[in-house]
Structures are given as structure tokens and as C-alpha cells.
Amino acid sequence: MKALVWHKNTIELTERPYPQIIHPRDAIVKVKLSSICTSDLHIIDGFVPKAKDGIVLGHEFVGEIAEVGGDIKNLRIGDRVSANCETFCGECFFCKRGFINNCSNGGWELGCTIDGCQAEYVRVPFADRGLTKIPDNVSYKNALFTGDILSSGYFGAELCNVKEGDVFAVIGAGPVGLCAMACAKIFNPARIIAIDIDEYRLNLARKSELADYVFNPGKCDIEKEIKLLTEGRGADCVAECAGGKNTFETAWKIARANANVAVVAMYEENQILPLPQMYGKNLIFKTGGVDAVHCEKLLDLISGGVINTDFLVSSEYSLDNIIQAYNDFRLKKDNCLKFAITY
Ligand SMILES: NC(=O)c1ccc[n+]([C@@H]2O[C@H](COP(=O)([O-])OP(=O)(O)OC[C@H]3O[C@@H](n4cnc5c(N)ncnc54)[C@H](O)[C@@H]3O)[C@@H](O)[C@H]2O)c1
Ligand SMILES: [Zn+2]
Ligand SMILES: [Zn+2]
Question: Helix, strand, or coil here: 171?
Fold first, then answer.
């Protein structure tokens, strides 16, 4: 079968044998659509030390069950499923508490330490947990982002504890930030503020009615603007979904006293937490790799028309053209947001 394989600094579309069931909780999925994640670029650029040379990349996908192991009772051949980006057993200390990102028997494996989904077929471990059936009225495209960026956006809104009437500021109007805004709407904040240096993305956040206000910190005094909107207090909650040079600093500066500040972004450099400067502001910081435990709920919200992530797909590429897709994604060609890879 065709597969996109990563070898130190390079990627290659090549032939690989079909995956086999090696554990009774495995399933083999025929991939129908996948996407490229910024984390895939982090692997290629050498920022993910645990990534194994020679693996098939990719962890964001939907597909059809082709084979199931003997212990899988909740899935059948032919089922349409959405995959969780995390592999998790559901039974260890962390899984029992919903912290699946830290599963003792899993973690980020697909497309990192074991073969991922940018291939015609993929083996999914703990498939009874990691795959969620897609409701009949939800297309593969509708469901594509459920197990990764949509879950990450929800995670951001959840870490922020967004409540009715809150002013919720999101730094970074990329795919994750836009998903955080879409998910926050479920909690009825009074206003959502999108902050980015990319005008195209800010316009998109406004046009798609995900944000009530948009600001470009390159063009305004962002702290001042947020204060004007909040009677001088600052935002009730802030999700940092940018990972830029100074965006962590912006996050705590625009937060009001006692606010929740959630760091969803992955940084390539250490950040500074200047405790003397923020003394008395009594902020609550939360950080993390996504605990994607709400896939079923998110698919229900998509099914009910509450959330729609289709607008994130800016182009489609066939698996044959995936190298081109990676090049275009890296260069953010034509204001791209997310790509759908077709099989
Ligand atoms: N915690 C998790 O589990 C998890 C999951 C998925 C992605 N991520 C991380 O979340 C982040 C966002 O992911 P994405 O796919 O949306 O990435 P992205 O790069 O497409 O979006 C980031 C956005 O931040 C903006 N930005 C950069 N510098 C800025 C600055 N100084 N001020 C304002 N805006 C600025 C960019 O213009 C861009 O629109 C990344 O760091 C990614 O690695 C984390
Ligand atoms: Zn990802
Ligand atoms: Zn576990």
C-alpha cells in the first residue's frame, strides 16, 4: 500500500506492507480522509525527540473499519469511525480520571512512535477506545477534525472554564484557536475576542461569526483594547493557541485578576513566568496536551448542527500529491488553514 514515511528531515511517498492485527484490541482502518497537523511539521523539523525514524506520519483521520481484533465488541467491519489522536487504554490510573494524554499504556503514538494514518490502511491500538462511530448524518469531512484539533479547541475552552457572560479571549486564530472559539460558544460567553497577526484569519473568525471582536497586536495596543471592552478589568479567560514569540506574555497580560489562562499552544522555546510582575493578579494557569475524551459528544454536536468545522478545509489533495500538500501547508500557501487528504 502507499504510505508517507518520515526519515530524518525528509518525507517520502513509498510502498509499505498492509498492517496486521497484533493485539486483540487492535483494529485496521481503511483511511478515507486525513489531514496534516502542525505537529507533523514539528516531527519533520526534529522537535519531537520520541518520534521514530521510518514511521508513517499522520494522526488526524476518519475511515472505515476493515478488520477488528478478537476483543473488540463495539465496532464492526464497515463502521464509519473518527480516530482519536491519542492512544489510550481506558483502564490505567490516568485514563480512569480522564487524563488520557498521560495514559500509562499509550499517549501520542500514531504517526509518532508507531505507523500513522497517511497511508491507505492503519492499525489502531486500543481501538475500542480510540475510534468513535460517526453518526449517519455526519460525513467523513464533517468528522475529520474531531479527534485532534476540534478536541484541542474544546480542551482549551474547558481548561479556561468558560462560563455564561464571560469575555473569552483566544490568541491565535489558526485551526486550534478557531475550534476553541466554536466550542466556547456552547458555554454562552458574552463575547469572544480573536487575536492574531494574520488579517486573513482574523477576517475569517469574524465572517464565520466565531468572534465578536478581532484584534491584530501588530496594529494596536492589545492590552488597552481588551481593557476598553471589559471596564478596565481584562478578559475573564484566555486561551493561548498561537505559540508565538511573545504570545504567552500577551496571554497573562490581557487576563483580568483571578482569570483562567490556558496554554494549548506548543512552544519551541522556554517561556518566562515573571511571578513578581504578576504578584497579586492571582491567575490560574493550566497547560497541556489534549485529553481528547469528548469525541462522542463533539460528534453529537456536529450531528445536531451546533458545531461545523467544514470551513477549515481550504484545499483537498490526493494521497498521491501529499508531498505537495506538506510543502503548501508549511508555506501556508493561499492562506491555507487545513487540508483534507483524499484516498
Ligand atoms: N495542546 C495540544 O494538545 C495541541 C493540539 C494541537 C495543536 N496544538 C498547538 O496549538 C497551536 C496552534 O495550532 P494551529 O494548528 O492552530 O497552528 P497555526 O500555526 O495554524 O496557528 C497559530 C496562529 O497563531 C498566530 N500567531 C503567531 N504569532 C502570533 C503573535 N505574536 N500574536 C498573535 N498571533 C500570533 C499565527 O498567525 C497563526 O494564525 C500550535 O502551537 C500547535 O502545536 C496543541
Ligand atoms: Zn495533531
Ligand atoms: Zn490508560
Answer: strand
Confidence grade of residue 299 (pLDDT, cut at 50, 70, 90) = very high
Pocket flag, ligand 1, residue 158 (CB < 6 Å): no
What is the pTM for the complete model shown? 0.96
Q: Which residue has the least CA distance to atom 20 on ligand 1?
A: 174
Residue 57, CA distances (Å) to 11, 36, 44, 302 in order: 9, 9, 9, 27
| Rounded Cα gap, residues 289 and 134, in angstroms | 24
Which tens digit of pLDDT belongs to each residue from 227-264? 999 999 999 999 999 999 999 999 999 999 999 999 99
Task: Kindly give the distance from the C-alpha atom of residue 286 to the centroid of ligand 3, in angstroms, as a whole number.
Answer: 21
Ligand 1 pocket test, pick from 264, 293, 294, 314 with the greatest ligand atom count within 8 Å of Cβ, gives 264
- The domains of the chain, with CATH numbers, are 2-145+309-342 (3.90.180.10), 150-287 (3.40.50.720)
Q: Is the CB of 156 under 6 A from ligand 1?
A: no
- Per-residue pLDDT reduced to its tens digit, 317-332: 999 999 999 999 999 9
Smallest-distance ligand from the CA of 59: 2
Locate 154 and state its grid cell. 474544546
